[in-house]
Design brief:
Elements (H helix, E strand, L loop, with lengths): L13 E3 H8 L3 H10 L5 E4 L2 E5 L3 H13 L1
Antiparallel strand pairs: 1-3, 2-3
């Protein structure tokens, strides 16, 4: 059987919440809670799957720190 090629997280354009948590060091719980509270333009919804545009993870970090320290 042919094996599906694996793509490194650093090479992906969109990340699942689990991958974004591993890549950024932000916990899955914090990501899920904060993303549920706001309407962000760097989130893609595919049915029940939430994808985050990898290049916008810095924006997520800024949004989280503003919320946290405001």
């Amino acid at each position: 059987m042919k094996e599906t090629p694996r793509v490194e997280i650093k090479d992906k354009l969109n990340l699942t919440i689990e991958e974004a948590a591993a890549y950024s060091g932000i916990s899955e719980r914090v990501l899920r809670n904060r993303l549920a509270e706001g309407n962000y333009d760097f989130i893609l919804k595919n049915g029940t799957k939430t994808l985050i545009k990898r290049r916008y993870l810095r924006n997520i970090w800024k949004a989280l720190t503003q919320y946290r320290f405001a």
